[in-house]
Amino acid sequence: MEKPGRNDPCYCGSGKKYKQCHMAADLAAEQEQRTWADAARALRVDLLEFAESERFDETADAAAAHYWNDYYNAETLPLMSASEAERYLDWLAFDHVLPSGERLVELYRAEQGAGMPAPRRELLDRWVAAGPMSGYELLGYERQTLRLREMASGGEFDVFEPAGHGDAPLGAIILGRLVPVHDHLEFFSLPAYIPPDEMADLADKLSAAQAADGDAGFLRRHNVLFIHHALEQAKLAGRPPVARLDPRHSPDGVQRRARHERVRVKGPNSRAETVPHMAQTRRKAI
Known about the structure:
Mean pLDDT: 86
Shape: globular
Strand order of the largest sheet: 3-2-1-4-7
Low-confidence stretches: 268-286
Number of strands: 9
Distance between the termini: 25 Å
Helix content: 25-40%
Structural class: alpha+beta
Strand content: 5-15%
């Protein structure tokens, strides 16, 4: 809804000027939204940088081969595109379990949570409790709100995504992690999608994983199957499954991203900041 001018009639139909009616409440609500959006962005930056810190190099290098089905390893990690790096670090922070039995996000909260501003700490507590990365069927959309159905549970969600549905058609499977931000859900990192014509046996793979490891935590342990399926389908379709294999880049021409360089982070407009964009495959971010 477009807001009226200060001296225009208020949209509520009271007959008063906007400045004498709902303007103060609307400005307060906008300020509250900015506070939570700023807290969410700062927390995203800190969490991703924490996950990429040198202390976790050993576990991150081994986890990368698992997540990427050996398309990336310790040597080739710097060749991840910015969006690939963001999604991988998202999974590493929230879903990968350390030898100690903790997740990185839990360790981050234990070490840094106490000194955080209140909104950021509240978000962190809610994000630690959030579900794993999953696949969501795109049922519909209205502007920047996506209507999604999770493949594993069948639950439906309305999700705010600043970039809207992007190139993803109805029926596509959106890959990402839902986290609460104030009064709505967002993706933690820039999501990717699997086109409807590349679904193939994805549902069967998910059902088999659930049958083999059917307790409540199976999806966090097996959600890499979504990534592996997308990589497999890209290869079958003749596309480079990952950015480092894109033939448009010679081995000497690929721009290496230094380890521990500030990562690409979803900003206010769902645009990446701080790292140059590299060519994307059709498994592009929305």
